[in-house]
Amino acid sequence: MLDHLTVVTHPLVQHKLTLMRRKDTSTGSFRRLLREVSLLLGYEITRGLDMTTVRIETPVTEMDAPILDGKKLALVSILRAGNGLLDGLLELVPAARVGFIGLYRDPETLQPVQYYAKVPEALEDRLTIAVDPMLATGNSSVAAIDLLKAKGAKNLRFLCLLASPEGVAVMKAAHPDVPIITAALDERLDDHGYIVPGLGDAGDRMFGTK
Ligand SMILES: O=P(O)(O)OC[C@H]1O[C@H](OP(=O)(O)OP(=O)(O)O)[C@H](O)[C@@H]1O
Ligand SMILES: O=c1cc[nH]c(=O)[nH]1
Ligand SMILES: [Mg+2]
């Protein structure tokens, strides 16, 4: 059973996160680092996944060996920035089912605006992991989890890179059953809803749109 909040303090994760936070880190480096961090966070977010066994032959003998059923996992990226985490997770579990929820945050109201949703069928039978690097006000992640629950998901986890205390509290109030895994819990939000110290706008930094 995962705690409501897990901060992955592993030195490799923290080192790469520091490089990502730096304002002079290039778009290409930022994207590469996010992929690398997603592989490391993937180790934590998949902890305790159901396994089955398969009969195999080693060069020495036969054995019943543990194996994952990737189809039992649904990875859902909150666009755009979620794709940076999704890419690495898919390398770890290539058979996972994949969904996308398109959300952008209105800069005035800080409310999420949905522009797309396509998620795998039969979510009630899968562990559903929603991914987005930034948990700021929590409005986007709450909206994404609302949608996934409305589509049947019962066993959910949320993976991010940075979380704010405000966002974690909003998620806990709305979805106390959804564990959050993050690389860091930052200090606070600024007046524009940006995480402080943060890393700026994750989508813009990944895609070079500003
Ligand atoms: O917790 P919140 O206050 O809702 O903020 C977090 C959201 O903001 C960012 O997306 P953004 O709206 O910038 O869209 P983008 O990924 O397309 O850049 C981020 O990727 C989250 O989805
Ligand atoms: O700090 C923040 C807050 C929301 N979205 C981002 O990309 N960064
Ligand atoms: Mg953005």
Please give the CATH architecture. 3-Layer(aba) Sandwich
Structural class: alpha/beta
Number of strands: 14
Describe the strand arrangement of the main beta sheet, using strand numbers.
1-11-9-7-4-5-6
Helicity, as a percent range = 25-40%
Give the end-to-end Cα distance, rounded to a whole number of Å.
40 Å
Shape: globular
Ligand inventory reads: 1-O-pyrophosphono-5-O-phosphono-alpha-D-ribofuranose, uracil, magnesium ion
Please state the CA-atom Rg, rounded to the nearest Å.
17 Å
Main β sheet profile? 7 strands, mixed
CATH topology, by name, is Rossmann fold
Total DSSP helices:
6
What's the CATH class label? Alpha Beta
Strand content bin: 25-35%
Unreliable stretches, pLDDT < 50, 5 or more residues? none
Mean pLDDT: 97
Order of helices and strands: EHHEEEHEEEEHEEHEEEEH
Q: What number of structural domains do the residues give?
A: 1
